[in-house]
Amino acid sequence: MGTLLWVGWTNLRRDRVAQMLTFLLPIVFFSIFATVFGGQGDASTARIRIAVVDEDRSEVSARLIDGLKNEKGLRAQTTADASGAGTPLDRTAAERLVRSGDVPVAVVIPLGLGEAFSQNGFAGGGPSIQLLSDVSDPIAPQMVLGLLQKVAMTAAPDLLMQGGMRQFEKYAGAMTPQQKTAVDAWLPRLKAQGGSGGNATGDASAGAMPIGVQVVDVMRTDNRRGSLVSFYAAGIGVMFLLFSSVAGAGGALLDEAEAGTLERLLSTNLGMTGVLMGKWILLALIGCLQLTVMFLWGRVAFGLPLFSHLPGFAVMTIITAAAAAGFGLVLATLARSRAQLSGFSTILILTMSALGGSMFPRFLMSETMQKFGLLTFNAWALDGYLKVFWRQAPIWQLWPQVLVLLILTAMFLSVARLLARRWEAA
Amino acid sequence: MNVLSIQNARKKFGQVVALDGATFDLRQGELLALLGPNGAGKTTLIRAIAGRVRLDGGEIRLFDRVLDGRLTPPELGIVPQEIALYPLLTARENLQAFGALHGLAAPQLSKNVDWVLERTGLADRADEPVKQFSGGMRRRLNIACGVLHQPRVVLLDEPTVGVDPQSRDRIYDMLAELAASGVSLLLTTHHLEEAEARCSRTVIIDHGRVIAAGTMSELVDQTIGRYRLVTLRLDSPLDTTAFLKATGTDNDADADPRIVKARMQDVAAELPPLLERIRTAGRAVDDVEVRGPSLQSVFIHLTGRELRE
To answer: Which class would CATH give A42-217?
Structure first.
């Protein structure tokens, strides 16, 4: 027994790869996931971007907008440019921002809200604030809804009180002059509180609803469940595409080198460039098939709206599979052995998938992590699929994703070609 | 006529000298064995001819054309030491794939596949996946893939390693047929007996240098000279030291004291007097063995060690 322990321990001590897999890998993954999903403990990075349209232009709407701007959980944009420049947003422009995915929610303060609010206070009855959103997003509209109620309660308490008093007088009879004096003396203090207390703690949405809010789905999709399924199909599909591309490329190059067939291939008319191109095309075709099977299954089992989005799906699938195949070849030409390839690719692919949104949607991550995620292959591929299935974007709007993936493909192939020189003449 | 000529080939990998001025020729239609202990530089030499290793110095000429060491010339067929086949494909599919990659087109490809299947004795198993083949069959198919495009020169790296004697014979029959048809073959091997029995000439390489080259008789003449080794086993031990001195015979220091060895240029003339002396000494001869010079003894003479060291 003691001898066995000694043999095992000595093997572990002398095997650097095993040590890394045993001790370092879990720490690396823990750190990555803690960073991605834990928002690094910095609440300011997890703000939801919203567009705000002021159709009312009243004191109430101005106070609400100020309140929304001061709200820590939100980053409100009222003009065409996110930095604050440009013309004030109108409903059409705000809807466009939601559809394009630039903001998850737009808040429209309709005409007449201010008047109804100051007249009726808690009793409501005026036009409703509209939240233009993609209701397939399970989190952002709900959070904005809650924060909006909180802002309404805290941003204009004096106006709310005035409305409340009017309602009180309407049903309970007029107040005495002393009562009126006391209320008038108190109202400025309330206003002051509202100005500074926009971030008062407490769950306003759980209390009374001073204003009506109507959530409007601006996405044209008639199958919300389907678009959510499409996100997961793309997310998981791309992650496994990377795994299978790396495995396929490893089989294509490392195994063939070991078996001697690579040597034999190199002695034919093909040459190394020919071998790599052949392997790349094969891997890309298999990748296309893999993603197609995944989406077809999504269509059959979960009602994913594949057939209504075929052109966009085809573009994204071909370009994604081509880039993933190139990525696989880079890793396979870089690795010296199958074991090295397997360990290294697992770390890299899971990291890229976590950062790039394959496991958790990027639009729900903090802004820093969203930007960081753009360094990964997955983020660009998934953004493309989201545009097609979720945002219903026309095919030409895929150009940034297609361009980046094309550049990545060219880079991957060039690097793989350079690295593959080690199999050529020594 | 020389089809392949290696002149002063030099190659270093880091500090390790793999080739140190190796020089030899391959003639048309011959089966040339490249012999040497492990690490002698055989595989490096084969890889250099195949365009897989760039020489630091010297040159390789194929049909009087200097090779640049980058690409495999089309006249060459390569048979690697590994079984370089796709195990899930059938024998025919493997041949079709490698034939097509060598630039063979439809009617010729099919004709050549049938020809090589017939020649390797694999025609009746042509449509079975290679993974079901025995070691010997795989070896034969491995060779078939290298000669399918009918190259004029074939390089074979240990083509018979790990196969049974029957398969080995079959492989050499196949190589002999190719040589008879004018193809020149250069093979590396560890099997001295094979090189001796089946190859027309032998090149012995050690430490990256060619230390001897020629036919078996040429090698013997160049090295140990022509003699027969006669080994006698007596019925009882003899005072060997005195006897050996008197008769000019030989024995290993730690060998059986009943054994007596003698080198004889003319066995018929020299053996009877020795037998007479043994009888005079009061001993009887249990056994006599007469052996001609072997490649093994040439090899040991040249390198000072057994081939498998």
So the answer is: alpha beta
Q: What value of ipTM does the predicted structure carry?
A: 0.76
SS3 content of chain B, % helix, strand, coil (to 5): 35, 30, 35
Q: What is the nearest CA distance from A262 to chain B, expressed in angstroms?
A: 8
User: Region A78-98: what's the mean pLDDT?
Assistant: 82
| pLDDT tens readout for residues B14-26 | 889 999 999 999 9
For B80-123, write each residue's pLDDT tens digit: 888 999 999 999 999 999 999 888 888 899 999 999 999 888 99
Contact B80 A270 (CB under 8 A): no
Residue of B nearest to A269 (CA): B102
The band of A290, judged by pLDDT with boundaries at 50, 70 and 90, is very high
Tell me the pLDDT tens digit for each residue of A182-238: 767 666 665 655 444 333 333 333 334 556 778 887 765 555 555 678 778 888 889
Q: Which of residues 66-95 of B touch A (CB under 8 A)?
A: 69-72, 74, 76, 78, 80-86
Confidence of residue B264 (pLDDT cuts 50, 70, 90): confident
Judged by CB atoms closer than 8 Å, whether chains meet at A263 and B76 is answered as no
Tokens of B78: 């390569």
Domain positions in chain A are 42-217, 224-423
Predicted structure pTM score: 0.72
Q: Chain A contact for B255, CB < 8 A?
A: no
Interface contact flag, B85 A263, Cβ < 8 Å: no
Query: In CATH, which of 3.30.70, 3.10.10, 3.80.10, 3.40.50 is domain B228-292?
Result: 3.30.70
Nearest to B101 among A268, A424, A426 (CB): A268
Q: Do B70 and A260 touch (CB under 8 A)?
A: no
Q: Interior CA angle at A36 toward A35 and A39, to 5°?
A: 70
Q: Which CATH class is domain B2-222?
A: alpha beta
